[in-house]
Write a structure and sequence with these properties.
Number of strands: 11
Largest sheet: 8 strands, antiparallel, barrel
Strand content: 25-35%
CATH class of one domain: Alpha Beta
CATH topology of one domain: Alpha-Beta Plaits
Structural class: alpha+beta
Helix content: 25-40%
CATH superfamily of one domain: Lrp/AsnC effector binding domain/regulation of amino acid metabolism (RAM) domain
Distance between the termini: 29 Å
Strand order of the largest sheet: 2-4-3-10-7-9-8-5
Number of helices: 11
Order of helices and strands: HHHEEHEEHEHHHHEEHEEHEE
Shape: globular
Length: about 350
């Protein structure tokens, strides 16, 4: 394991940035674009993977796949039990993200997936099931995601020149020009998507062997999932390793008429890892990742200050990430019972 207090050397960070833009890019392609020797890039990628500094994975677009709705949960642990509670929550299969926050109060922020029209009342009335032996956990708030403007899959550390990024994007499967809000997820789609979640860089040859496809069929299956944006590929890494240790979760109040505009503007900011319209007293949830307190201060004053539709901002620092997008702290992909 790589220590989170370390920062990867510059050449490694450039390779990671390339893998963030295109998680399936070949080492030869990355080497050519970055101007490195192919064997050097291959060694760097292998060492990063072996140390579990990176985890190439994939996540479902749960709304487009009809799997349910992403729900953000604000939880309060018993006094003195934050660490123990967070560790147990990270092991819980129904929670995809577990973050410890510091701002309005020391608290935990979790993300779960609820099938449409089910279990919300139970969740609100009885809390999260299946957590025996833990101190009391108070469910403070639950926020439904209404529209996602950008996710962690689209974020990358800004170390690439525009032309380098364009070249990496050019080799990716491009989404359809007219995407539907919903596509039917077939059993074969689910098997292929799960294989990509285990390893987004799995070769088409290995996919074809696993499922008895031809290589061409495996390629078409992967392309179909990506074209319809049913899944998103991403390279998971702790931002601190990339020299961006300051993460914050922002709760914004935005006038209804300006919600789309503000969401789209923030989604295009290099500091923003996640941006979604949500239910609750604050209607826009934004997660940012920057180099220092000064960068966060400038983001709040300059980026947000330039958007008059924002009427209120509440800022909480992410002090520790126990689980991100179903990937545990040690880089292991955790099972999720609601994932097909």
């Amino acid at each position: 394991m790589v220590n989170d207090s370390d920062t990867l050397e510059y050449a490694n960070r450039r390779v990671v940035a390339a893998l963030q833009v295109n998680p399936r890019a070949g080492v030869g392609e990355i080497a050519r674009i970055l101007g490195e020797h192919e064997r050097t890039v291959a060694r760097r990628v292998q060492r990063l993977a072996d140390s579990r500094a990176i985890r190439p994975t994939a996540t479902y677009d749960v709304m487009r796949c009809g799997l349910g709705n992403s729900v953000g949960l604000r939880l309060q642990a018993a006094p003195g039990a934050l660490e123990k509670t967070a560790q147990a929550l990270a092991e819980h299969p129904e929670l995809r993200t577990v973050l410890a926050l510091c701002g309005r109060s020391s608290t935990l922020w979790c993300e779960t997936l609820l099938p449409y029209g089910s279990r919300l009342h139970t969740l609100m009335a009885e809390g999260i099931p299946g957590l025996p032996g833990l101190p009391d956990i108070t469910l403070v708030e639950a926020h439904f995601t209404l529209k996602t403007f950008t996710t962690e899959a689209s974020w990358h550390v800004p170390l690439l020149a525009p032309d380098e990024r364009r070249q990496l994007l050019a080799s990716m499967v491009q989404p359809l020009a007219d995407l539907a809000d919903h596509y039917e997820l077939t059993p074969t789609d689910r098997r292929v998507a799960d294989a990509l979640a285990e390893d987004a860089r799995i070769s088409l040859t290995d996919l074809s062997r696993r499922f008895g496809f031809s290589v061409a069929t495996a390629g078409r299956r992967v392309s179909s999932l990506l074209e319809r944006r049913m899944i998103q590929l991403r390279t998971e890494i702790e931002p601190a390793l990339l020299g961006h240790p300051f993460e914050a979760q922002l709760h914004l109040k935005v006038g209804p008429a300006g919600l789309d505009h503000v969401g789209a503007e923030l989604a295009g900011c290099p500091e923003v890892r996640y941006c979604a319209a949500v239910t609750g007293t604050s209607n826009l949830l934004v997660q940012v990742c920057v180099e220092s307190e000064a960068h966060l201060y400038r983001f709040l004053g300059e980026r947000l200050g330039a958007l008059p539709q924002i009427t209120e901002v509440a800022t909480e620092l992410v002090v520790h990430a126990f689980k991100r997008g179903s990937v545990l702290k040690d880089g292991v992909l955790a099972a999720h019972p609601n994932q097909p």
